[in-house]
Specification:
Elements (H helix, E strand, L loop, with lengths): L3 H19 L36 H12 L1 H4 L1 E9 L2 E7 L9 E2 L4 H14 L26 H5 L18 H7 L6 H6 L15 H15 L5 H20 L21 E2 L1 H12 L3 E2 L2 E2 L3 H7 L14 E2 L21 E5 L3 E6 L4 E8 L5 H14 L1
Antiparallel strand pairs: 1-2, 1-10, 3-4, 5-6, 7-8, 8-9, 9-10
């Protein structure tokens, strides 16, 4: 007999696989039924270009980069790998059926993009890092959530109740928000969660937190409540402040039915455009000699948070994490200034400022393959 739980599990997995296509237009409603793509498949793109000619690469470095493709049984399927030194590509390779024009899903790498967008509005004086977060649902007298700041949200220390990964999968708040009862109004779902700790007291990684930030951004950019106006305001803001100055023309954020950007996951871009974002961070907010993001905001993002030194302002740091917590990177091997945007299933933008290097790896990695994937990426970074 097929149980309700089994049906929910199948539905969640199907939605996870189909999400990148059904939501690509950003309208927040499900597209007509169609065969689901492979889990994590790229968006339709222009005909695939051949990778550009690259300079000769040290054979030892090339071998470690190639191993991310050839050791698929150990690390999972690598769909794109791009390595830049001083902003110039030294290695670029794609898996079968993927290429430079393939838009690939970000998953939680989107959180760091949301942090940068937040930084723009803080630097403009429209938001305050340490003032109460402007969330209407938290402003009632006596509500402890009224003390939550943007700093708390960016440090994943809001104190709000949240289960990122449920066991079973449908029991988690993230699945419920993205694909279940909260999908029509993701920010409303996230902002309705009760406080279970004081702001700044505990680290609790939360995709819902990033959606709250995206909701704050939209409310700051436009007083309009229509989904169309909110989407339009956010798209114009992203284009003018990020994608056009950086040349990240493929970046495609997605939105829920209320017009709130899904700030914690599910953006799409090419590997080359993800690398441009990594270079932007490596250069501390400067592009072509022009500062777009204040140095003070970059220092905030890259400073360890009080409750987990391996996490900064919505970005992962190469620092030891609390005892018993799985490392996100490799603090026992890599440089102290290394940091990364990391997404579900092994999406990485790895930045090593002291090496003048940016690495983008996109693909499909299972949970039990992550230790080996991290080792391979650490080997590659260490060889550069």
């Amino acid at each position: 007999m097929i149980t309700k739980k089994a049906m929910l599990a199948s539905a969640a997995l199907a939605l996870l696989g189909a999400w990148s296509l059904t939501q690509a237009a950003g309208q927040g409603a499900m597209a007509p039924a169609s065969p689901a793509p492979r889990f994590g498949a790229s968006l339709p793109s222009e005909p695939v270009d051949a990778p550009r000619p690259l300079p000769a690469l040290d054979p030892a470095i090339k071998a470690k980069a190639d191993a991310l493709f050839t050791d698929a049984d150990d690390v999972g399927e690598t769909r794109a790998l791009l390595v830049l030194r001083d902003g110039e590509p030294i290695y670029e390779r794609y898996g079968a059926s993927f290429g430079p024009q393939s838009k690939l899903i970000s998953w939680s790498m989107a959180k760091s993009i949301t942090a940068v967008l937040t930084g723009f509005l803080v630097s403009d004086g429209q938001l305050s890092l340490d003032g109460p977060a402007p969330v209407a649902a938290w402003q009632r007298s006596g509500d402890p959530r009224g003390a939550i700041t943007l700093r708390d949200l960016l440090h994943m220390s809001s104190g709000l109740e949240h289960v990122e990964e449920g066991d079973p999968i449908w029991a988690g708040d993230t699945v419920a928000m993205l694909f279940g009862g909260g999908a029509q109004d993701m920010a409303g779902f996230a902002e309705a969660k009760p406080a279970v700790a004081r702001p700044g007291e505990l680290f609790n990684y939360s995709s819902a937190t990033s959606v709250i930030l995206a909701d704050i951004l939209a409310d700051t950019l436009t007083p309009a409540k229509s989904a169309e106006a909110r989407r339009g305001a956010m798209r114009d803001f992203i284009a003018g402040r990020l994608t056009e100055p950086l040349g990240m023309t493929s970046l495609t954020p997605e939105f829920d039915a209320r017009g709130t950007m899904i700030g914690g996951s599910i953006m799409h871009a090419t590997a080359r455009d993800y690398a441009k974002f990594g270079e932007f961070l490596r250069n501390h907010g400067v592009v072509n000699g022009q500062r777009l993001l204040p140095e003070t905001w970059m220092r905030f993002m890259l400073t360890p948070s009080p409750n987990d030194a391996g996490y900064g302002g919505h970005i992962w740091l190469n620092r030891p994490r609390p005892a018993g917590v799985t490392p996100a990177l490799w603090p026992d091997r890599g440089p102290n200034d290394l940091f990364a945007c990391i997404g579900h299933q092994g999406q990485y933008i790895i930045v090593s400022p002291s090496q003048r290097v940016t690495i983008v790896r996109l693909g499909i990695t299972k949970d039990d393959q992550f230790p080996e994937l991290r080792r391979h990426l650490a080997d590659l970074q260490g060889a550069l």
